[in-house]
Amino acid sequence: xxxxxxxxxxxxTGLIFTNCGGEEENGFSGQNRPVxxxxxxxxxxxxxxxxxxxxxxxxxxxxxxxxxxxSAPIQQVYVESGDQxxxxxxxxxxxxxxxRERVRQAEASLRISLxxxxxxxxALGEVESDLRRQRILAERDLVTEMEIERLExxxxxxxxxxxxxxxxxxxxxxxxxEQQQALEQTVIRAPITGTVGERMAExxxxxxxxxxxxxxxxxxxxxxxxNLTERMLQYIETGQSVRIYSENFPDTxxxxxxxxxxxxxxxxxxxxxxxxxxxxxxGLLLPGMFVTVxxxxxxxxxxxxxxxxxxxxxxxxxxxxxxxxxxxxxxTEILEEIESSGSIGQLSNPTSIEFKEIEVVARGxxxxxxxxxxxxxWVVTVGQNLLVxxxxxxxxxxxxxxxxxxxxxxxxxxxxxxxxxxxxxxDRSASN
Length: 432
Description:
Blueprint: H1 3-18, H2 23-26, E1 37-42, E2 44-46, E3 49-67, E4 72-77, E5 84-85, E6 90-94, H3 97-139, H4 145-184, E7 187-189, E8 194-197, E9 206-207, E10 212-229, E11 241-245, E12 254-261, E13 271-279, E14 290-299, E15 303-307, E16 312-313, E17 320-324, H5 332-341, E18 351-352, E19 354-357, E20 359-363, E21 367-371, E22 378-382, H6 384-389, E23 394-399, H7 402-410, H8 413-431
Parallel strand pairs: 1-23
Antiparallel strand pairs: 1-22, 2-15, 3-10, 3-14, 4-6, 4-9, 5-8, 6-7, 8-10, 10-13, 11-12, 11-14, 12-13, 15-21, 16-17, 17-19, 18-23, 20-21
């Protein structure tokens, strides 16, 4: 069943409750037939906001997951879920005995490499000295050319040994640095300032690079991710305003703007992600929460506007239209009071009703721009079913405000029925 038809049926139930005080209030035609009671609002002239309703997922500002870079048992945990932490604060300490031993071994290997380098340097110096002496003797023809060539070969070998020793020293130093960094990783620190959530770390648990320990994020700032299709990218862009709703805060609407849109479409899905940065000082948005996001991307052309609940498909003719009360009028000051307070007016005397076919030229989430009716016409929003029964000849009209009708359209059916029953019982009590 269409949502607004369903709402109309529920409101009809409410009208039956409120009009059950007797024949005098309901009114009867000359043939002893009850005149139906309906609710109506005045059509307006204007434009509709163009919007795209999407679902979004909330993330905390700068939200990060914390993993261990090494594998080791957890020795101490310093924070709980909900704790505030500063960047660099210690979160977890892992058992470091093995890593300290590796550092000691690496440092010992470095000392050995340094000693070997000194030996290679000394051996090179000895060969260089010997070669200088032999060359002096060769100038006096006291040594053979073969002896000089042998010493030059020894010099080349000594130089290669020194280079090898230097490389081994560099390698040993790198190993020491690597083991020291691994030792430092046994202390896991907060990479950002924020709030700790989803603590998984427990003392004695084996921490590995694959096991998440915490999530940390800035709860004063939130990021909402929404998915955009390839079609939406033609009219949705960064900087456009958004409205954010949630059942968790039904009386509050958050606003923001689209901060960034990824230019890459997902393979197979042909959609991409957009992000919305929102201030969350009040703490309404919680990471992981699903919200409804309306992206406002323009306005329609101006037309006569009516609530969506006024649009009715005539069951006899199949035409789409609205019921209009051409002879219904209401004093300006009373109308202004109704619009400002949202209260419902009194039922009118029986008034003629006509069904007019319309064409929808623009459709919003709560209202539609149409042709076929004029601005200022009173259109029926509740009780069309009763008018079908009476061929739409006449009805008693109760004037109501746009805001009240829009609020009812937003309500869940169970909440709407509860309100109708409560109002009906209150009206009957007042009449008694």
